[in-house]
Design a protein that fits this description.
alpha/beta; D-tyrosyl-trna(Tyr) Deacylase, Chain: A; two-stranded antiparallel sheet; 8 strands; 23% helix; globular
Length: 151
């Protein structure tokens, strides 16, 4: 699994002109599910996300987690994170998990964020054409990849 985590002041996702998810202070998480990912990767990634200390403390050091600041999460599925651009100029998405598996793990990851103490988790619509808006705070953007932890 791959996650691009952006610390935000606010974020929302719109499908067909309707807001389907919105948060205030917290993380906008773009999530890609890779072929071979399992619930184990979702568990590891959700725990790491909830504990990721990228909010500033009273000494202006990135030392506080999403749970420490009572933050919120907006999770948006994004299979393009699984793109392979090694050959040519057109990305290949063959590394992406099949849609049924990807959706199951996407939903499980969101549920696991709640289980890990995130008080509010909103979602986009899996497979839909979405418009995502955000106010990046910092900016702070972190990339997490469970593949890197297996090696």
């Amino acid at each position: 699994m791959k996650a691009v985590i952006q610390r935000v002041k606010r974020a929302d996702v719109v499908v067909d002109g309707k807001t389907v998810g919105e948060i205030d202070r917290g993380f906008l998480i773009l999530l890609g599910v890779v072929e071979g990912d399992t619930e184990k990767e979702a568990e590891i990634l959700a725990a790491k996300t909830a504990k990721l200390r990228i909010f500033e403390d009273e000494n202006e050091k990135m030392n506080l987690s999403l749970t420490d600041v009572d933050g919120e999460a907006l999770v948006v599925s994004q299979f393009t994170l699984c793109a392979d651009c090694k050959k040519g100029n057109r990305p290949s998405f063959t590394a992406s998990a099949a849609p049924d598996i990807a959706n199951t793990l996407y939903e499980r990851y969101s549920a696991l964020l709640l289980e890990n103490g995130i008080r509010k988790v909103e979602n986009g619509v899996f497979g839909a054409d979405m418009q995502v808006s955000l106010v990046n705070d910092g900016p702070v953007t972190i990339i997490l990849d469970t593949d890197l932890w297996r090696k």
